[in-house]
Design a protein that fits this description.
7 strands, 5-stranded mixed sheet, 24% helix, 131 residues
């Protein structure tokens, strides 16, 4: 676990861990002629900002706002292009009953809340409120 209850301890990861891939929109982007942000992605950007050691467990891939998002679809298949999406490394730990989805031989979560629950169970970050 990277964290325990309460605030982060600023500990370094002691052993190499498999890195999961987080597909996420940038913090801001232009869409429909306006500078916008994705609320679900912002939830994860905030969590990563509060617990920066999470970055060492992730390969963060920025995807664009336009659909389809080829980087995600190429991995998970046509019609699967939600951001944020966390694709687990084959040897990454899973949480029983969390609702992982399988596609093209990959296990993934396509919801910020599920991703945050995964981080809480695996890395010890706080759980999302109401979960």
């Amino acid at each position: 676990m990277l964290f325990r209850s309460g605030w982060p301890r600023n500990k370094r990861i002691r052993k190499p861990m498999p890195r999961d891939t987080l597909f996420i929109l940038p913090m801001s982007f232009v869409s429909e002629g306006q500078n916008q942000f994705c609320p679900e992605c912002s939830e994860l950007w905030g969590l990563i900002g509060w617990f920066p050691d999470l970055k060492a467990t992730l390969e963060i891939v920025h995807v664009g706002i336009d659909h389809p998002r080829p980087a995600i679809s190429a991995l998970l298949g046509e019609g699967r292009h939600n951001a944020p999406t966390l694709v687990l490394h084959a040897s990454s730990e899973r949480v029983r009953g969390l609702g992982y989805v399988e596609a093209n031989g990959h296990t993934y979560l396509a919801s910020a809340r599920l991703i945050a629950r995964h981080f809480a169970a695996i890395h010890g970050t706080p759980s999302p409120r109401g979960e």
